[in-house]
Amino acid sequence: MDHAESRDGATGTDAHTDVTPATPEPAPESGKKRRRPWVRRVRRIALVLALVLIVPLLAVETTLRVNYMGDPADGTHTRDRDAMWLGHAWVDGRKKDADVTALARRLKDTGVRDLYVHTGPLEHDGTLPESLYPRARWFIDAVHRELPGVRVQAFLGDVLANGGPEGLELSDAAARAEVVRSAGQVLDTGYEGVHLDLEPLHSGDENYLDLLDDLRKLTRERDAQLSVAAHQIDPLPHLHSVAGLVADHPKWWSQKFFGQVARRVDQIAVMSYDTARLFESTYGGYVAQQTSLALEVTPPTTHLLMGLPFYYENNPGHWGHAETVAAAVRGARLGLSRTDPDRELFGLAPYIDFAASETNWKEFEDGWGR
After folding, report:
1. Residue 11 contacts by C-beta under 8 Å, 6 or more apart in sequence?
2. Which distant-in-sequence residues (6+ apart) come within 8 Å of 34 by Cβ?
3. Average pLDDT value for residue range 141-146
4. pTM metric for this prediction
5. Contact at 8 Å (CB) between 115 and 143?
6. Tens-digit pLDDT profile for residues 5-16
7. Distance between CA atoms of residues 254 and 256, nearest Å
8. Burial class (CB in 10 A: 0-12, 13-18, 19+), 257
9. Which of 116, 147, 186, 202 is the most buried (most CB within 10 A)?
10. Confidence band (pLDDT; 50, 70, 90) for 165?
């Protein structure tokens, strides 16, 4: 054989030379093995999220169910100090004498003594066009004729600028002064009180407290009522602060801020609906909790009212099968029983007349009537 043929053509080395083979590299791990650390991390994160979110949620729901158990105390029925929100149709010309007669018939055997009739909305600068309530004087006189002893208050509301790009700006002193002027304007018309509903209102808003101080001075001078629609109270400590991290308009007020508002008004009505509760028992337990929290910080000289949902909707914030009038009434009675069963200045407030069903009225009268 030719010596050249003994060479490896690829390497140029002697084909018969004893060469030590290279150490083979370890085979790569399978894809399954490479993913294991990542999968474990995902599982740990999922477990942590479950512990942080789901477990507390289940605990809250269980607590609310338990809060709905038991029987209301004897005597926790109407004190004849209830209120009701009414729509704008009563003062803009759509309602007639026959409608007032029908309303009087409906309210006659209830404890409703205050009517918050929608008279606004306010303009974003705080002003109120008189053209919005041309029949207000007629309605006030008709109520006094048909329902002696029932007060009619002007329900004034607006969207606040902190809930979007447009709205009433409470930090504007001129706008606050116009709100006070508008309140005097409706009192001049004959209303016996001013009911303010500004949303969404952040907990701790000092400008709102200043506005209430100015309104209270006005209503006292006129021997009129000052009432407000109030956000719900933190069901868990500082929940409004946590919610504020993920939403521009947190749903709740701190209990402290609720008390600060309650001390500045004659009446405070909790909007205890649109709670996102899924079951009647948890909704009723929630209303019981809200009632207790409100009673703890509302002075006995301030009239506390718990709002009832006189309407039916199904959406993530309000499930009609859960937020029933029966559950709200029973929840309010339970909260009253446990916290201050002898509170005299206490009532319920249905929202709102034009959406109410016969079932709503029946559950209200059967559950709350004497």
Report:
1. none
2. none
3. 98
4. 0.84
5. yes
6. 333 333 343 443
7. 5
8. buried
9. 116
10. confident
Tell me how far apart the alpha carbons of residues 90 and 140 are, in angstroms, rounded to a whole number. Answer: 10
Structure tokens at 124: 């974003």
Q: Within 10 Å of residue 288's Cβ, how many Cβ atoms?
A: 30
**All residues at 6 or more sequence positions from 355 whose CB lies less than 8 Å from its CB, including other chains:** 310, 311, 312
H or E element, residue 158: strand 151-159
For residues 321, 361, 271 and 349, what is the CA-based torsion angle, rounded to 10 degrees?
Answer: -160
Contact (CB, 8 A) for 258 and 297: yes
Q: Report angle CA 262, 264, 266 to the nearest 5 degrees.
A: 75
Alpha carbon distance 275, 277 (integer Å)? 5
**Does 146 have pLDDT greater than 90?**
yes
Closest CA to 367 of 64, 78, 68, 112: 78
Task: Tell me the one-letter amino acid at 337.
Answer: S
157 Cβ contact partners less than 8 Å away, ≥ 6 residues apart: 118, 120, 121, 122, 196, 197, 198, 199, 229
CA distances from 352 to 28, 62, 112, 325, 356 (A): 70, 30, 13, 12, 6
Q: Are strands 252-253 and 314-315 parallel, antiparallel or unpaired?
A: unpaired
Written as six digits, the tokens of 339 are: 């916290």
**pLDDT of the residue at 129:** 98
Q: Is the peptide bond before 200 cis (omega within 30 degrees of 0)?
A: yes
Mean pLDDT value of segment 85-108: 98
Tens digits of residue pLDDT in 270-293: 999 999 999 999 999 999 999 999
Residues in the chain: 370
pLDDT digits (tens, 9 = 90+) for 68-88: 999 999 999 999 999 999 999
Tell me whether strands 318-319 and 314-315 are parallel, antiparallel or unpaired.
antiparallel
Residue 282, CB half-sphere, CA atoms under 13 Å: how many? 18
Nearest CA to 289 out of 247, 255, 244 is that of 255
Give the C-alpha separation, 182 to 186, whole Å. Answer: 6
Instruction: Assess contact for 309 and 328: CB atoms under 8 A.
Output: yes
Contact between 73 and 342 under an 8 Å Cβ cutoff? The reply is no
Give the amino acid at 320.
G
